[in-house]
Design goal:
There is one protein chain. The protein folds into 3 domains: about 200 residues, FAD/NAD(P)-binding domain (3-Layer(bba) Sandwich); about 110 residues, FAD/NAD(P)-binding domain; about 110 residues, FAD/NAD-linked reductase, C-terminal dimerisation domain (Enolase-like, domain 1), CATH 3.30.390. With about 450 residues, the protein is of the alpha/beta class. Helices cover about 30% and strands about 25% of the residues. The strands form 5 sheets. Strands 1, 2, 3, 4, 5, 6 and 17 form a 7-stranded mixed beta sheet that branches. α1 packs parallel to α4, α3 packs antiparallel against α4 and α3 runs parallel beside α6.
Length: about 450
């Protein structure tokens, strides 16, 4: 059968654009459809605008701290409208770059919704096209909790388009999104209550980082309601009244729900294509991103595996190479570094102590200190750094940091771990002085041994 395209990609986010561009570069006839915005969640309502807002929130504290260095800077009011306008200009530029990259590679671009009519036929707007292979790269969307009055709150997508900065915000959710927006709003001058159902923030991260982040957020003046939930929300004029599960009532300007994301498969016609999804709605795939239909693939957040932009991009690149003869790539998906742009930020790669102890006895190295800039500023902000080391092999299994520049520092740590670095390799590396990063190569004294009892069993 003659098809209109060799490859049709549904979704113009990080995964889909990279897959389409690389496949077209290999000579495939490629089409990519995107109904909302090029660049997907990350560029438009995710990591990129979020980090711009985090950076904006940091300036107020810097103005305060500058007096410790002899500057006479007074913190003024913040212009939220100007910030959002500047953010929108930059996002507009980036979305244009994504489309230009595709067209420059020779891909056909559709700015409309696409859905399956059968395993090889796709409805694109008012047209029908056929494709030999199809890639599903539609990402995910934020969800609302099922509680009375949930319609009176917003989700993370909405937060990037608020007309004004709220004076008081209640946030439900202790994951990446909730923690990051708490820091953003608090840094810009709002009163923030963060409600988290867990005993600590950032479930799945190393326990000591989680404990350190709680201390840091409380130091910023953020009120934490741990082991708690929002039961319902009422709208009273411009105000929102949130009832917490412990009986507390919060009267706020805004309620933000940051309780997770789900794969964006509704209305995609997967049933017509015979593509299986799991109970969560994620597309089921094998180790080569292939669905139960041998010519249909899925990459990125729609698979709900490692929901990180660089992972989605790597998957798109690898799949295009796999299908159309490019050089074989071996990404290290076992040790993916990640960052949380909290205040201060977190960088982490490898295993947490709790996960690593399942493998055997560990040597744990930690350090906590006040970074140089805060000694003169007299700000109570401490950094935490941690190495998780397998005692038998001395291989470094996990590197974790809470503190300024942690995301930048952890990228280098990820290279070392991918190369199989041992504690001895860290010890024989000369540090850069004076920096926080040098602490990773000067931690000579073991803090404790973990997993001895388990090893004895």
């Amino acid at each position: 059968m003659a098809y209109d395209f060799d490859l049709f990609v549904i979704g113009g986010g990080s995964a889909g654009v990279r897959c389409g561009r690389i496949a077209a570069g290999h000579g495939a006839r490629v089409a990519v459809a995107e109904e909302r915005f090029w660049g997907g969640t990350c560029v438009n309502v995710g990591c990129v605008p979020k980090k711009l807002l985090v950076q904006a929130a940091e300036y107020g504290a810097w103005a305060d701290d500058s007096r410790g260095f002899g500057w006479d800077i007074t913190r003024g009011g913040h212009d939220w409208t100007a910030l959002i306008a500047a953010k929108d200009r930059e996002i507009g530029r980036l979305t244009g770059v994504y489309r230009t990259l595709l067209e420059g590679a020779g891909a056909t671009v559709f700015e409309t919704r696409a859905r399956f009519l059968d395993p090889h036929t796709i409805e694109v707007g008012n047209h029908r096209v056929t494709a030999e292979r199809v890639v599903i790269a539609v990402g995910g969307h934020p969800v609302r909790p099922v509680i009375p009055g949930a319609e009176h709150g917003i989700v993370s997508d909405d937060a990037f388009y608020l007309e004004r900065l709220p004076r008081h915000v209640a946030i439900l959710g202790g994951g990446y999104i909730g923690v990051e927006f708490a820091g953003i709003f608090a840094g810009l001058g709002a009163q923030v209550d963060l409600v988290c159902r867990q005993p600590l923030l950032l479930r799945g991260f190393d326990e000591e980082l989680r404990e350190g982040l709680v201390e840091a957020m409380q130091e910023q003046g953020i009120t934490l309601h741990l082991r708690c939930n929002i039961k319902d929300v009422e709208a009273k004029g411009d105000r929102r009244h949130a009832l917490l599960s412990d009986g507390t009532r919060l009267e706020t300007d805004l309620v933000l729900f940051a309780v997770g994301r789900q794969p964006n498969v509704a209305g995609l016609g997967l049933e017509r294509a015979g593509v299986e999804i799991n109970s969560f709605g994620a597309v089921c795939i094998d180790e080569t991103w292939r669905t139960n239909q041998p010519h249909i693939f899925a990459i990125g957040d729609v698979t709900d595996r490692l929901n990180l932009t660089p992972v989605a991009t790597a998957e798109g690149h690898s799949l295009a190479d796999l299908l159309y003869g490019g050089p074989e790539r071996h990404w290290n998906f076992a040790q993916v570094p990640t960052a949380v742009f909290s205040v201060p930020p977190i960088g982490t790669v490898g295993l947490t102590e709790a996960a690593a102890v399942e493998r055997g006895t560990l040597d744990i190295y930690t350090t906590r200190f006040t970074p140089m800039r805060y000694t003169l500023a007299q700000r109570n902000r401490r950094a935490l750094m941690k190495l998780v080391v397998d005692q038998a092999s001395q291989r470094v299994l996990g590197v974790h940091m809470l503190g300024d520049d942690a995301p930048e520092i952890i990228q280098g740590m990820a290279v070392a771990m991918t190369a199989g670095a041992t504690k001895a390799d860290f010890d024989r590396t000369v540090g850069v002085h004076p920096t926080a990063a040098e602490e990773f190569v000067t931690m000579r004294t073991r803090t404790r041994v973990a997993g001895v009892a388990r090893a004895a069993e």
